[in-house]
Task: structure prediction
Amino acid sequence: MFDRIKKAFGKEARPADESEGQSSRHSPGSLPEWAATHGFAFSVDGSGHGIALDGKVGSKPWRLQLGRATRDYIRGEEVRARAELGLLDDVAVVVMSRPLKEALEKKAYQIYTDDLQTSLDSSMPEEMRWLAIFEEVGWNELPPDFWARYCVLSDRRENALAWVDLSLARLMVDWPAGTSAEVPFMILLLRGKAYLRMEYTPADLATLQHAALVFTTACEAGLGAFDAKKQAREARPLNRE
Result:
């Protein structure tokens, strides 16, 4: 597996006519070189099973990793990311690819019926619990192709509206050629952090580059939408009797 990953990192970037709509962020032709030009730290897992990119957005640290899948709905390698944004703890918004949502709902139904369960099981993947806890929300300002590909889940519609703006939605639609709507994908704000998880398909440099762009843009949007609210709340004087 790792030999294939290293081979992908050594590929030259796609010619412009093969990656329509992609900017110069897809050159240089290797991940370490591209990471260096963007101020990211690149490292290889000591076990030889994956790689990592580290950076900061708004002084907050983030890490994107590529390695073995940790979810059974992901085939092959998995791209996952996490950022310690320090946002309000009560902000919970999930953007999930629709095919993944349907697959998780089907699996949850099978678990309930096979085991005669009538309540959520703590052993279930957290993604299944989100489907039961959060409501799907929508609004007209985002384009139809976004809603055809993704669903947005939250306990507060206003938080989803504040985070998923048009620029972020467009990035999540404008993947390099070969990344279909069937690829399992999710990005979320939860417990003050930002997370991303997706299947590494197609397994090439452009996929990792765009995943990093989507994630850092989502982090910036989260900080812009909720960090100021947190600061305002913390600065509010205490009521004195």
